[in-house]
């Protein structure tokens, strides 16, 4: 087997960014191995010609096998917001991924991270991404940390409420301040592109969308998409717990969300806070994502 015939491994294909990464690689004719926990989830990818590996992110043996004999891998650390030990779980996944990458002698990784992962504290959930970066960085494996901006798809439940009631709630404030946001399809396609670059060493790439958007802008876009008035409502911190009741967050996850959102709102979490990062931008406008989200809610 030649080096060029070895597959690229993609984790997270049951989620948005992993699916987009695998899709981009397959469309460009590259061999792909998708990693799933349940073989049934791999069937659609097998039908497209991908190899399917079954692995548990906390099991070293299955992870090492999934990462063996590859050109590179896109790795993610899914976050378990219903667990009280979500940070401990995130470290276990990071440690297992790191040990498996070394054991399998993976030539390079692209690891999904988040803006704010360069900050030591005050980032809430993003601390899990920082753990992922730090543990992988200790391995010596060539790794690109892909720090994505706020996902455009995070607006899905709020768009659903706007469809039903004409009110668009937001945790982000002040409502007139633009924030970098990115579509998950751009995250996945960027991960695929970075894998194909075959660069060596460790680096950080930040990824935003084609422009920044304020909550006021989003309300206007949702209003235009639905062709009806939409009122933006900025939720006070005292209301966050009630607003998130349907998400079934653990107490630890809710505390992490609160700290992260505070960090976003006071600009402590800033896409430009790491001067050594390389800036990339996706091409998908928020208008397109909002239109897709609204269609699903109707």
Molecular structure report:
It is globular, with a radius of gyration of 19 Å. The protein has a domain at 3-151 and 181-208 and 270-283: NAD(P)-binding Rossmann-like Domain (Rossmann fold). The protein is of the alpha/beta class. The protein is 43% helix and 19% strand. Pfam families: NmrA. This is Epimerase. Residues 9-235 form the NmrA-like domain. It comes from Pseudomonas frederiksbergensis.
Features:
298 residues, alpha/beta, Rossmann fold, eight-stranded parallel sheet, three-stranded mixed sheet, 11 helices, 13 strands, 43% helix, 19% strand
N-C termini distance: 50 Å
Q: What is the topology, as strand order, of the major beta sheet?
A: 3-2-1-4-5-6-10-13
Order of helices and strands: EHEHEHEHEHEEHEEHEEHEHHEH
* Low-pLDDT residue spans: none
Coarse morphology: globular
The secondary-structure class comes to alpha/beta
CATH H-tier superfamily of the domain at 3-151 and 181-208 and 270-283:
NAD(P)-binding Rossmann-like Domain
The CATH topology assignment of the domain at 3-151 and 181-208 and 270-283 is Rossmann fold
Total of DSSP H or I helical runs spanning 4+ residues: 11
Domain NmrA-like: 9-235
Protein name: Epimerase
Quick description:
The protein is an alpha/beta fold.
